[in-house]
Amino acid sequence: MLSFDDVVARYEPVIGLETHVELGTQTKMFCGCPTVFGAEPNTQVCPVCLGLPGSLPVTNKAAIEATVRIGLALNCSIASWCRFARKNYFYPDMPKNFQISQYDEPLCSDGYLDVEVDGELFRIGIERVHLEEDTGKSLHVGGATGRIHGATESLVDFNRAGIPLVEIVTKPVPGIGARAPEVAKAYVAELRDVIRTLGVSDVKMEQGSMRCDVNTSLNKLGETWGTRTETKNVNSLRSVERSVRSEMIRQGNILENGGHIIQETRHFHEDTGESTSGRSKETATDYRYFPEPDLVPLAPDATWVKELKAALPELPRVHRARLTAEWGLSALDMQSILNAGAVELIEQTVAQGASPEAARKWWLGELSRHANERGIELGDSGVTPSQVAQLQKLVDEGKLTDKLARQVLEGVLAGEGDPAEVMAARGIEVVSDTGALTVAVDEAIAANPDIAEKIRGGNQAAAGVLIGAVMKTTRGQADAKTVRELVLSRLSN
């Protein structure tokens, strides 16, 4: 069986990503139904989003504006005239049996997004950014996996049907070789940061407000591109990377054994890191696109578009460059922070009063280790920037050493409360009572007379033994620097 390295040595990967982003508008795309996440099933519906006969859609202006802003941030050209189309297909969560989308006339097109991987810059071409409506959600119950296979019944919740959905489609990305999985992950991460900065979506992949379809194909060097597969609805940055890697290995082994790749959709499984076949992949003609007769065309005013462009916020790459300078970091330092998904977390921690150096230490140290061990994103660890800043403040005030602070952090991670609450509950605090420390030092000296004589003779390095004894007596809660000073002071007399 070919390994990933074997595949890369023999084949050239080409990737493409289709990212769906639910916009954070108050109402749906073509009706006035609310878009609150987590509402009781089928309570946020009306004749329009249920596709009942005689109902007519009306375009959501806020969704149009949000889509144009996304297009501008991705360096796209904004159409002066475009229109919606009907994309016809049947699926149980499609109440109308067609989706109002855009086909050959997208609102935004021909842009790019620059991403960095270990200091290397990759420009990802954007084919189109278009606006459509989301579908409902199928719930398969009675089985072990939550998928239709093995389920005893399926339910449909139409609350999501009709929510404004932006689809961002990249151009094919060839020539990236072994970096393909990393570039895919970096692109989705950068895109998520851009959209979050614009404030048009919460881009919570775990809740489905940002979903990624990953296209992958292989070809031998110098040959035409191979047949692609589409891994659907990948819902975490880690899984984007894993799905590309897994699909490259799967396709490479099929080709190596003389097989052929089938153009199909595939489902990625988080638990195994592998994908299974879904359905054969349709082409545009299968959807029988035609212009939506119930909606007028869109014609964004050029002056309005210019105003939106001028009002764009500082975008992530520019923002990171400014923070790099302000925090006194190297480009490699910032890349490490970016790779860990910690830029925003560190910035928020600094805003709460911690120094950039201290904030970086905690997020890239203990908290990254904790997240990696559990296979979760850094921001999902359960600790807030405010709590990290509180923890560092206790260290700065001398109430905790770094070692004790790590014990307190364990309690915060376990859900025991804020750092001060964990300190109180666990009885953790630096012993600062000089009198008590002096007694502990004297006891250590009395118990180790030979070590004491070495120190009196000028061997200060031997003080480590006595310091260790005092730390043991105080359960590690004494300040080692203070203990050292007391040891040397007592033995200099």
Fold and architecture overview:
This protein has 493 residues and is an alpha+beta fold. It has three domains: 4-307, no CATH class; 314-426, no CATH class; 434-490, Orthogonal Bundle (Arc Repressor Mutant, subunit A). The protein contains 17 helices and 14 strands. The termini are far apart. Heterotrimer of A, B and C subunits. It catalyses: L-aspartyl-tRNA(Asn) + L-glutamine + ATP + H2O = L-asparaginyl-tRNA(Asn) + L-glutamate + ADP + phosphate + 2 H(+); L-glutamyl-tRNA(Gln) + L-glutamine + ATP + H2O = L-glutaminyl-tRNA(Gln) + L-glutamate + ADP + phosphate + H(+). This is Aspartyl/glutamyl-tRNA(Asn/Gln) amidotransferase subunit B. Belongs to the GatB/GatE family. GatB subfamily.
Topology:
Blueprint: H1 4-10, E1 12-22, H2 61-73, E2 77-78, E3 85-88, E4 98-101, E5 108-117, E6 120-133, E7 137-141, E8 153-157, E9 164-170, H3 180-198, E10 210-219, E11 229-234, H4 237-256, E12 264-269, E13 274-280, E14 290-291, H5 302-310, H6 316-326, H7 331-339, H8 343-351, H9 356-364, H10 366-374, H11 385-396, H12 402-413, H13 419-426, H14 434-447, H15 449-456, H16 463-473, H17 480-490
Parallel strand pairs: 11-12
Antiparallel strand pairs: 1-9, 1-10, 2-5, 3-4, 3-14, 5-6, 6-9, 7-8, 10-11, 12-13
Helix pairs in contact: 1-4, 3-4, 8-9, 8-11, 9-10, 9-11, 11-12, 12-13, 14-16, 14-17, 16-17
